[in-house]
Amino acid sequence: MDEILAKKLRILADAAKYDASCSSSGAPKRAAGPDGLGSTTGAGICHAYTPDGRCISLLKILLTNYCLFDCAYCVNRRSSNVRRAKFTVEEVVTLTVEFYKRNYIEGLFLSSGIIKSPDHTMELLTRVAKALRRDHGFRGYIHLKSIPEASPWLIEEAGLYADRLSINLELPTEASLERLAPEKDGASIQGAMAQIGGRIAEAKAERRRFAPAGQSTQVIVGADATSDEALIRKSAHLYDSFGLKRVYYSAFSPIPDGSTILPLKSPPLQREHRLYQADWLLRYYAFTPDDVADATDDGMFALDVDPKLAWALKNRDRFPVDVNRADREMLLRVPGLGARAVDKIIKARRHTSLRLDDVARLTSGLKRARPFLIAADYRPAGLTDRLDLRARLAEPAEQLSLF
Amino acid sequence: MKARAPRQAPSPGPLRGRDLARTDAEDRPAPRAGAPLRTILLAPGADLAGFRAALRGLVAEGVPPERVAWSSGAAPELFGATEAPAAGAPVPLPRAVADLVPMVVPHRDPERYALLHALIWRILRGERQLLEVASDPLVHRLALMRKAIQRDLHKMHAFLRFRRVPENAGTERFVAWFEPEHHILEAAAPFFVERFRALRWTILTPEGSALWDGAALRFGPPGRREDVPPGDGFEAGWRDYYESTFNPARTNLRAMRAEMPKKYWHNMPETAAIPGLIRAAGARTAAMIEREPQMPTKRQPARAVAAMAEQDPTSLDELNAIIRRTEPLVPGATQAVLGEGPVGATVAFVGEQPGDQEDRQGRPFVGPAGQLLARAMAEAGLVRGEAYLTNAVKHFKFEERGKRRIHQKPTAGEVSHYRWWLDRELEFVAPKLVVALGATAVLALTGKAVPITRARGPFRFERFDNRFQGFITVHPSYLLRLPDEAKAEAYAQFVDDLRRVEALAQELAA
């Protein structure tokens, strides 16, 4: 690999790393054709982890970090003094294919600063995906960032080659967008999400290939004053209205050459973690947005207990729950019991009566679950209603970011 | 290669069985005092075939798990004379059990075969649904073993790194060295075949090797780390990427180590960067926070920012240029068929999609249906050259049958894809009346499926905010498909519709 390409790679990987999305999941299973390269397994693979604990699954780069937009939170905004570079379409294709052949990556996640015009930029992104699919028979994973300001037909063309499309909301409210991202417009972002959502649904019904891994988005946490509750309600809206696969939460972190209108302190990473847990409750635990709101204190999640535990502590009258009798929905509400543990409980109790030891084999969260459940040989007695229960179950204060 | 046949040694071996599960111990025959313990010797590693054969024999003979000592890995000679196992019939097992066995056999635990035998023993003695009882200690232990194998497979698929073998040009060859925790090479290899089918590659491990020559997968003797080339032209670039994608402000070593334990590091070139990244992270983060925001020195490109919005096509010609250079949504069409007729035409006709003739000539309504339309228009007093003619979908979609290309109706999703262009086109042409020919045109103009027979006649296309009036009639190709006896009447009705269109057009033009 020559030095110029390596230099561009360093700049354009650095510029892309603030996008939290790394997933290579959701694509239908595919295998390489006789002369082709690449497969997808469905679940996705993390090929390495960096010391920030994040996985490397895709080659996540920008086509260019030159940008005409001036979004305050973004390291690549036009008024930032970072070093700039631009890949050619062929360079991105080469990097993807050669990294892939060495089993470094699952595929490509390509985004870009806006150069010349949104249409011009969108066309370049699509050209990369097209070249990979056409010229290299590439069946690995491709995630393209869509540019909501681009013409609708260009956004849709991208879906023919990409597994996943995403448009980053970044800021959850219109007011914040206006203040921090003057060139962006909330209506056009949501319009493009609706458009992509519609095409994905139609293609699925007609068994055509169009972004089969769905669309996702990212919101920045802590760059404005939006509460956790508001963020979760926004996500619930995005899941319901546009059929989004994932909402990523990215705790705002200091960037080189930061803008003066950003807050000086970044939010604790634990806040981001709690948002993901709450998001999971929406998608896999049948919690409504109101339930999730109920788990907050004045709209914010506690940092020392997870949202499900927080909800249970506030709704103790609904516990303890009998693991040998309760329905699935109520078992899912028990802190410390994951969806998989619940399914195992439901299967196993058809054949046997579960004791506490049995439950211990099905979950690693028994400590949190104990005060909230009944087993064949166990009752929590007064534990459920103890005043100091929260203190007993809280996680020790720990700053995740220290090393 | 591996010795596959399991062997039995007559001499009693060490007792391997433990209390494998809390279970109906009373159902089991008590070990007869002095009864010889059966020792079954399997090939080293994951000897699935050997285990299966031995199990059949044991089940046929009714030998309980506590009477069997399983052994694998030692050279058969150590056991002296061996006799072939009694051949048994295949053992009927629930699907879930059959799926579990190959996921446990590769495990390094020497008790793996005994545990599986114990499980199958209980299943055959009345506990058919045993695997559903995930809380049972034996089931739980086997589930953990399966999980360990899945994780080991996953990590091998993730962390193995190929290096290119410097060779003559032509086919590329890659080699990797990997040390799995369990005996998973054979289970892991198909993944690499599916992924790197067009390449030639070898995977070396301390227990064996896998070789793909582009056509067949073979397993061979163990390899050595030294058999892999010392470097690769893209490794430095990969390390650059690894370093650049790390965010020092979020350092979280515990999370990294949980997913990428240190034991894998020495085979992953990028991990050499980790100590340096960790050392510098604190200072880098502090520098970012402490650094005063800088005034932007350059790049306030006011003109470029203003110009960026000027991307929309500003004329029908510009739009047509975009349509022309865009590939068909469904591959096959020769070319895009654009609308035809004067900008500012009073009436615009919207059809479905180009047919075979239209696709060849690159003009709308020139095939049989188009000719019929022209005839009907003439009879109704409409001049074809004064009207604007276009289609909802711009590319021909067909199925090949012999030499014929049979038209295929566009799906609703395809119509949606093309709708953006139709909308812009009608904006540029700005007709006073738009005539939808058939259901696809109506779908494109309304966004919903509307039954033609009921909606036939004047119609409001609400999506367009009254920019033009609307009219719905059948598509001329519908007339061509009718049986002869119905044709004349339907045609007359079609001409009738066009007369109403003509009258409306007169009114609107005035």
UniProtKB/TrEMBL annotation, chain A:
Cofactor: [4Fe-4S] cluster
Domain of life: Bacteria
Keywords: Iron, Iron-sulfur, Metal-binding, S-adenosyl-L-methionine
Secretion signal span: none
Gene3D superfamilies reported for this sequence: Aldolase class I, Photosystem II 12 kDa extrinsic protein
MF GO annotations: catalytic activity; iron-sulfur cluster binding; metal ion binding
InterPro entries: Aldolase_TIM, DNA_rSAM_put, Elp3/MiaA/NifB-like_rSAM, Endo/Exo/Phosphatase_dom_1, rSAM, rSAM_sf, RuvA_2-like
Ranges that cross the membrane: none
SMART domains, per database record: Elp3 (SM00729)
Domain Elp3/MiaA/NifB-like radical SAM core: 57-277
Protein name: Putative DNA modification/repair radical SAM protein
Automatic annotation (TrEMBL), chain B:
Gene3D superfamilies documented for this protein: Uracil-DNA glycosylase-like domain
Basic and acidic residues bias locations: 16-30
GO MF annotations, alphabetized: 4 iron, 4 sulfur cluster binding; deaminated base DNA N-glycosylase activity; metal ion binding
Chain positions covered by the region annotation Disordered: 1-33
Segments forming domain Uracil-DNA glycosylase-like: 338-499
Cleaved signal peptide residues: none
InterPro entries the record matches: DNA_repair_put (IPR023875), DUF4130 (IPR025404), UDG_Type-4/5 (IPR051536), Ura-DNA_glyco_family4 (IPR005273), Uracil-DNA_glycosylase-like (IPR005122), Uracil-DNA_glycosylase-like_sf (IPR036895)
Pfam families in UniProt: DUF4130 (PF13566), UDG (PF03167)
Keyword tags: 4Fe-4S, DNA damage, DNA repair, Hydrolase, Iron, Iron-sulfur, Metal-binding
Biological process, per Gene Ontology: DNA repair
Family label: Belongs to the uracil-DNA glycosylase (UDG) superfamily. Type 4 (UDGa) family.
UniProt-recorded name of the protein: Type-4 uracil-DNA glycosylase
Species: Methylobacterium soli
